[in-house]
Amino acid sequence: MIRTIAILTGGGDCPGLNAVIRGVVRSAILERNWRVIGIEDGFDGLVGVPRWRELTLDSVRGILPRGGTILGTSNRGNPLAYPVVEDGQTRLVDVSAQVVGNFQKLGVDALIAVGGDGTLKIARALQELGMPMVGVPKTIDNDLRGTDVTFGYNTAVGIVTEALDRLHTTAESHHRVMVVEVMGRDAGWIALESGMAGSADVILIPEIPFDLAAICDAINQRKARGSKFSIVVVAEGAFPADGQKVVQVSSDENSGVERLGGVGAFVADEISRRMQIETRVVVLGHVQRGGTPSPFDRILGSRFGVRAVELIEQKQFGRMVSLQGRDVCDVDIAVAVDSLNRVDPAGSLVGAAEALGIALGRKRSDL
Ligand code: F6P
Question: Which DSSP letter does residue 39 get?
Answer without folding.
Answer: E
